[in-house]
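User: I'll paste a sequence; please echo it back and then give the predicted structure.

Assistant: Echoing your sequence first, then the prediction.
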Amino acid sequence: MTGDAPRSLRRSVRSACTRPIVVALALSAASVEPGLVAAPRTGADTSCPDSPASPVNASPAAASLGYLAWAMDQFHVRFPVYDDVSSAGNHFPAFAKIPDANAPVTIDGSDTSNPHYGATAIKNTFNAVAPFGGFYFLNGVLPDGATAPELNFGTVPEAGIDLSGATALRFWVRGETGHEVIDFFVGGVGWNADTGQPTEPYPDSTPRYPPRPHTFPLTTAWQPFELDLTGLDLHYMLGGFGWVATAQDNPTGAVFYLDDIEYTLDPAQKARRLQEPRLIRSFTTEPFQMLPPPVGQFDLTLRNIAFTYDNAVAVMALLAAGTPDATDRARRIGDAFVYASQHDRAYDDGRLRDAYAAGDIKLPPGWTPNGRVGTVPVSGFYDESKHTFVEVEQQGISTGNNAWAMMALLALYRRTAAPAYLDAARRIAAFIRMFRDDTGTYGGFQGGLDDPESTPKRRLWASTEHNLDVFAAFTVMGQVTGEPEWQADAEHARQFVESMWDADRGCFLAGTLDPATRNMQPGQLPLDTQPWSVLALPDTLTLHPQVLDCAERYHRTTDLGFSGFDFNDDRDGVWFEGTADMAVAYAFAGNPEAAAALRGTLQQAQAMAPFGDGEGIAAASHDGVSTGFTTPAGDPFLLFRRRHVGATAWNVLAQLAVNPFYQVAACVALSPLSCDDGDACTDDTCDPSAGCIHTERPATEPAGVTCDLDNLRALLGMSPQPACSRRCSRMLITLLEKIGRLVQGDGSRSRKQHCQRLRAAVDNAGTLEHLVRRANKRHHIVPPERGQRLLSEATRLDGRMRLLKWSMCGAGVTRRSTPVQFMGGAEPNTRRDRGAVWRAVVHRTCRRNETASWSTPTASDCGGPGSMSVVGGRVSISPSLMRRGFSGASTR
C-alpha cells in the first residue's frame, strides 16, 4: 500500500500555558478613559487557570482524560477573535480597510517578530499620508463559488454572529516605538459614526463602542486592554473588532502589534457554548511557523486540524472512563460526527472526511459554500505570502477512518440508546459497502477515494488495518440491530485480513497494492495490524498465537530511554500510540506483565517533558519518526513529538485495559474505574484473570432500591437542565426523595410500621413510573433518549420496590388480592404485582438493557425449567431466583 498512510497520526508538546488569562486591573480615571481598561504586564502568566490541573496522585488515565477535556474546551470557554494565524478558534477573518480600499494601512496576520503568546501576532501599519485609516475585522460572507470571504458592511442578510452573553473584549497590544496612539472599538458596521444611525439594511446590532474619539497611548511592551461590553446588544455582529489611527495623533505614522483577541463570556453563555457539538484539535502544536527539516511547516499546516480517527478514539476513551462528564464529552464528539455526516459542503451520503477543522462545528452565518448553510469547516492554513487558504487532508476519504467513526457512534448508541447515532452509523456503513471488492484475488474492502470532490477515483489498494476496522464495525452493527447481513460483510473483511498473513515472518502485512498484489515492500510492515488483529478478531490468538511476537521482532525499539514500538520495521523511534496498542493487546492476550511494562513506558513519557506534560502524550519520541508510507498528498508520512489526541486517548485505553473495538475491559489489578458500568445497582469489581465482574444488588435489600433512586437522580441531573418543565422536575424529584425516606428504616419502628412505609413507597414508585411514562409519551422530557432511560429506570424501580416489600413484609398490600404461588413458599400477591414480577424478571433479567451493562442470566433463569412459569393465572418462581431477587447471575 503506497497511496495512503494506514492512519493519520498527530500531536505534540503542549506549552506550559496554553492561553493566558488576562486580568484587567482598573487604573485611575485620569489615565484610562471609561470603557477601556489597561493592565500593566507584570510578567508571563504561568498559572494557566483554564488548563486542567493534574493532581500529584491522579492516575495516568485520569490525567489523560484531563488533557482531552482541556483540548476539547480550549476554544469554547471563550470566543476567540485571534489566537495565531490559522488557529482553530479564530473568528472575524475578513480584514476591511477604513474608510475605504484606498486607506494607507496594511495588516499582516502572520508576524513572528515578537508575538505576545504563541506563534504569531498581527502587525498593523498606518502611513500618515491621509488624515486617518484603520481596519475592521469582519465576519464577511462566503457565497457559492467563492474561495475566500468577501466583505459585508451590512448589505447581506443573515450574516451576523450572535455574541449575546459576551461580557468583555480583551486583547494585547504593543507599539513599535511606544509613541503610537490608537483607537480600538467593536461594532458600528453599517452605522454612521457621526449621527449614530444605521445606514445599511442589515447592520451590526450595536453602534460603534466606545463612541469616538477614544484613543489610547501604547508602549513598546505588551499590554492587555479590555472593553467592557455590559449592556450592549450583541446578537448580530458583523464587525468583531476594529482600530483607527489618525495623522493628528501619529504624525509620523504608526506601527503596532495585536495578539490574543477574545471575547469573555458570562457563565450562562459559556455553559451553552460548552454544550455545543465539536471535534478536538488533534495536536497541540508548537509556536512556530517553520522549523528546519524534518519538521518544516508542520506546526502551521496542522494547527487547526481535527482528524476523524483521533476523535473516534477519544470517544472510546471517554466512554471507557464511564464518568458522567466523560460520557457527556463523548456525546459532544458523537454529535459532531452526526452533524458532519449531515452537513457536508459537497456530500449527502453520510460519509465523513478524514479531517475537519477544530473549533466551531459549522461555518459562521453568511458562509455558504455550494449554496449550503451551516456546513462543517475543513482543515487548512492561511498562506500569508499568497493570501490563500490551503486545505489540508482533503485529498482523500478513507474506509478505515469512516469505520472508526462508525464504531464510536455505535458505542454511543449502546450507551445512550439515542437513535441519531445508529442512523449516522448506518449511513457510514452504506458508504463503506461501496468499497467492497468481490472480484479481486484477495477481496476485502478497498481503501476509499482519492480526489473525492473533483474527480473521485476509487483506490485500488486495500489495507489490513482498514479491514480490521470494518470487521469490528460491522460485527457491532449486527449485534446492535440483529440484522444478519452485517455479519456477512464482517466475514468478508475477516477473510481479507486472514489472506494478509505472512507465514514466513509470522506477521500480518499492511495490505495490497492492487487487487492481485500483496504489499511486500521493504519498510512497510506496520505495527498496528499485529495488536489490532488480537483486539478486533476473536480467533487471532488461536490461529496465530505468535502474532505479538512479530511486533517484538520487527518493531520493538529503544529511543531516548523509552522502550516501546515503532510504527514500521525500520525501528527509528518509539511510537507512543502504537506502544499503547500493544499494551492493550497484551492485556487481552493474557500477558499482564508485558502490558504493565508498556503502561510504565507510557507513564514515563506522560510525566516527562517534552514527551508529556503530566497529562497528554506525544505521538512519537522525536520529530520525524518514519512510517514507510506517504500521505494522500504524496508527502512522506512522518510522526512528530507533539501532544496528540490519538496517543493520549490510547493511553487511557491502555491504562484501563479497555478494548476500544468492542468497549470491553480486561481490567488490571483492582481498578474500579476500568470496570465501572455506570449503574449504581451493580457492584463493579475487577479480577485480572476473570475480567470485569458486575454483581447486581438484590432487590430484596433496601440498597437494591436506593441504588435505583441514585440512577434516577443522576439522569435528572444530566444536562440540559431541567429534564422537563420545572413543575414536572419538582414532582419527580419530590417522589424520589419521598421513596428514599420511606425505604430507609431507622430501627425504631415496628415491623408493621415499616411495612406500612414500604407499601406507601410501592405506591409512590408506581406513581413515579406513571408520571415518567406520561411525560415521555408527550415528549416533555429532553432529550428524548433521556426520557427513554428514565422510563426504563423507573420501570425497574417499580418492580424492585415490590420485590423488596414482598421479601420483607409478604403479601396483602391492597384489597384486590389475587393468589400468586411461589415455589419457595412465598405468599400471594395482587394482579398488579404479578404484572410487576413479570416485568422485573423478563424485562430486566432476561433482556440486556442497551443503556447500561446489566447482568446476563442463564437459560434456566429466563423461563427455563425450575425458574418461573405462569399456569392458570399463577406465577411460580424458583427459590434460587427468589433468593437472588431476580437480579440475574454475577457475570463478566
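The first helix runs from residue 60 to 73. Residues 1-58, 813-892 have pLDDT under 50 and may be disordered.
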